[in-house]
Amino acid sequence: MQAMECQCRVMMKKAMNINIKKGGDDFFNNRLFSYLSKELDANILGIKQLRGNVYLVDTKTSRFILKGYRDIRKLKIQEAFTSSLRKSGFAHSYSFYIQPKLTLYFQNEYYGCIEYIEPHETAFHYKHEYDRDEGIELLNKFHEKTIGLAPSYTSLIPKTDLVRKWQQRRIEFTKNLTQINYFISKELTRDLLEWADFSLQGFIGKRKILETDSPAILHGDVAHHNFLRSKEGKLYLIDFDLITTGSRAYDMVQYANRILPFLEWKLESLANIKHLNNWLNNEAFLYGLLYPADILREWNRLLREGQNSNPFRTAPIVEMTVSQFQQRKQFQEDVKSRLK
Ligand SMILES: Nc1ncnc2c1ncn2[C@@H]1O[C@H](COP(=O)(O)OP(=O)(O)O)[C@@H](O)[C@H]1O
Ligand SMILES: [Mg+2]
């Protein structure tokens, strides 16, 4: 009887394994499935890869997110930070489920289990004005709370170093230039590099004015996919892998850079957005706005991933570089005239 039950369980597991919805490597997912079933002592029904090291796990009784980290310290910081954030009164993010005696370690990654937020059918996107407005409101609320948390985290997380990041991005872009010029003209890349240099030089000269602010913990990656609208309509901020400490201007300049393509690069439109308008009198912030962060990032990523022969990947990047170029040029002029 026992043997039969055992055999039955094996068969069920096999059947379940076949049902896993795969995003990547089947073999890896099947082994992860077996590992979790054993370690969590749970009746796991399915694992679906959402992205990279992020999986959605269904058990008979619950649903949670599993996220992998190379470095256990990084996972511990995520667990501590999301818990501190919740305790500070910020209710717009998730917590990790922490089991003190259990560390999930599988194929060189440490895994954390995260509360699942069921998404709304309409995803958050910067193309919607209401999302842009609610997103900045939430980011501002996040900073208000993290200013209080920053002193406890200064020794655990790095200080923001935007200049270094942007200098590296510029260097990588320059190395990729020959390849990039297969797709876009030399005049255009020359303009982009001029904007980058003008921005960096000005920012380096003025960044001291940002150091008088009380440092906050910055999110560091305010892309639209790190905002999650729940089924009930509540907005969440997720994915704190890139947290650093520093002036909240750094997150704000990144937010502005993310939404500007949807504002047709109009400075007046930025001036109408709460929590961004007050930064438009800050010279460091204005220099920061001039850095073509998005274009340089996307070309570098394309080439790093060796995808430059893939038309499905190159076309949208060519389009983002070329289609709004005149608007961006005008934006450079408008910001510069505020700097005088
Ligand atoms: N707690 C969660 N609930 C629901 N979906 C989530 C959750 N965490 C992550 N996701 C989904 O998985 C995606 C990737 O997760 P994220 O933590 O942002 O990983 P990455 O570091 O790869 O960007 C998110 O954009 C979101 O769609
Ligand atoms: Mg993310």
Number of strands: 10
The H-level CATH homologous superfamily of the largest domain, spelled out, is: Aminoglycoside phosphotransferase (APH), C-terminal lobe
CATH topology of the largest domain: the name is Aminoglycoside 3'-phosphotransferase, Chain: A, domain 2
Question: What's the domain count?
Answer: 2
Tally of alpha and pi helices: 13
Amino-to-carboxy terminus distance: 86 Å
Structural class: alpha+beta
Secondary structure layout:
Elements lengths: L1 H18 L6 H14 L4 E8 L2 E6 L3 E7 L2 H16 L8 E2 L6 E3 L2 E7 L13 H25 L8 H14 L1 H4 L5 H21 L9 E3 L8 E3 L5 E3 L6 E3 L2 H11 L7 H5 L11 H7 L3 H12 L6 H12 L2 H15 L1
Antiparallel strand pairs: 1-2, 2-3, 3-6, 4-6, 5-6, 7-10, 8-9
Bound molecules: adenosine-5'-diphosphate (ADP) and magnesium ion.
What does this structure look like?
It is a single chain. This protein is an alpha+beta fold and 340 residues long. The chain has two domains: 2-115, Phosphorylase Kinase, domain 1; 129-339, Aminoglycoside phosphotransferase (APH), C-terminal lobe (Aminoglycoside 3'-phosphotransferase, Chain: A, domain 2, Alpha-Beta Complex), CATH 3.90.1200.10. Helices cover 51% and strands 13% of the residues. It has helices at 2-19, 26-39, 72-87, 129-153, 162-175, 177-180, 186-206, 249-259, 267-271, 283-289, 293-304, 311-322, 325-339, and strands spanning 44-51, 54-59, 63-69, 96-97, 104-106, 109-115, 216-218, 227-229, 235-237, 244-246. Strands 1, 2, 3, 4, 5 and 6 form a six-stranded antiparallel β-sheet that branches. A two-stranded antiparallel sheet has the order 7-10. Strands 8-9 form a two-stranded antiparallel ribbon. α5 (162-175) packs antiparallel against α7 and α8 (249-259) runs parallel beside α10 (283-289). The longest helix has 25 residues, at 129-153. The radius of gyration is 23 Å and the shape is globular. The protein binds adenosine-5'-diphosphate (ADP) and magnesium ion. Residues 50-52, 54, 65, 67, 94, 114-117, 225-226, 228, 238-239, 241 line the site of adenosine-5'-diphosphate.
